[in-house]
Q: What sequence folds into this?
């Protein structure tokens, strides 16, 4: 094999290996971002459920408190777009409230958009128990 | 094997091992950052819960417990922010901009705005695996509706 031929082979090997390694690294980071997004959504939904049971029992304020808490917390993460938040409406004293939240994880807001160019919908649920003595 | 072939193999090995180490250290650095970020998410949520709960004593249940929020958040992140200075700011004082916080320091602040309480953690943790060009920073917040009782 001539020296020129060997040089071409090395170049070809590098051209295959380097993008493959970069893709692997980006894929690894994409998994980490997915895990982080789930943690952030879980934390926001958990806070929303806790906020819902701080409103007076039987009041429609529960849903407002929960929604305000949920969107306020998720606002910090530009790659997470808040969707629906359900189940946080009025409760009776001593009952459980379960909030279910949906958000869209948009990889295009991160460098990982190269390998995951489509938004992914993620879900979360959290339960809080209201005080039996809260009436107003 | 001729001298020029040996030289080529050495150059190739140096390139591959360099890239491999960069990827390995990058992955390790990202893993450490993920653990720190996960703890920070939990910390600000824990702080927000404490703040929203109100204070006891003469301040009244309708006053957010901003003073108690910051130690609650700091307790969660302290075990994972090894070598990082954790500074708790005065209550109702905003965190400085990220660029104004030196590397190796993280600030925790708690503020009240209208009916909501916000606990924020912002800073640049010290990293055991520094990668040139990769500047891992933390800027997270939790906002929760404050507990209020009608008179």
A:
């Amino acid at each position: 094999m001539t020296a020129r031929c060997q040089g071409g082979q090395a170049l070809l090997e590098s051209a295959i290996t380097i993008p493959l390694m970069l893709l692997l690294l980006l894929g690894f980071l994409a998994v980490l971002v997915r895990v982080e997004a789930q943690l952030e959504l879980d934390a926001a939904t958990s806070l929303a459920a806790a906020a819902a049971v701080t409103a007076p029992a039987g009041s429609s304020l529960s849903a407002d408190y929960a929604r305000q808490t949920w969107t306020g917390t998720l606002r910090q993460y530009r790659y997470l777009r808040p969707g629906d938040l359900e189940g946080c409406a009025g409760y009776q004293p001593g009952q459980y409230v379960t909030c279910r939240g949906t958000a869209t994880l948009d990889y295009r807001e991160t460098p990982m958009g190269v390998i995951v160019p489509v938004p992914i919908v993620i879900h979360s649920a959290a339960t809080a128990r209201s005080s039996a003595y809260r009436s107003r | 094997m001729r001298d020029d072939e040996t030289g080529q193999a050495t150059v190739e090995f140096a390139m591959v091992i360099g890239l491999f180490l960069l990827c390995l250290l990058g992955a390790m650095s990202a893993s450490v950052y993920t653990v720190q970020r996960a703890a920070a998410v939990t910390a600000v949520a824990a702080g927000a819960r404490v703040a929203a709960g109100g204070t006891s004593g003469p301040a009244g249940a309708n006053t957010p417990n901003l003073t108690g929020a910051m130690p609650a958040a700091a307790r969660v992140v302290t075990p994972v922010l090894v070598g990082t200075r954790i500074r708790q700011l005065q209550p109702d004082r905003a965190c400085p901009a990220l660029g104004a916080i030196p590397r190796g320091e993280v600030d925790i602040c708690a503020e009240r705005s209208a009916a909501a309480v916000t606990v924020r953690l912002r800073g640049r943790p010290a990293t055991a695996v520094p990668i040139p060009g990769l500047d891992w920073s933390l800027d997270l917040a939790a906002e929760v509706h404050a507990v209020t009782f009608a008179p």
The first strand of chain B starts at residue 85 and ends at 88. Helices of chain B lie at 3-52, 66-77. The mean pLDDT of chain B is 86. The radius of gyration of chain B is 22 Å.
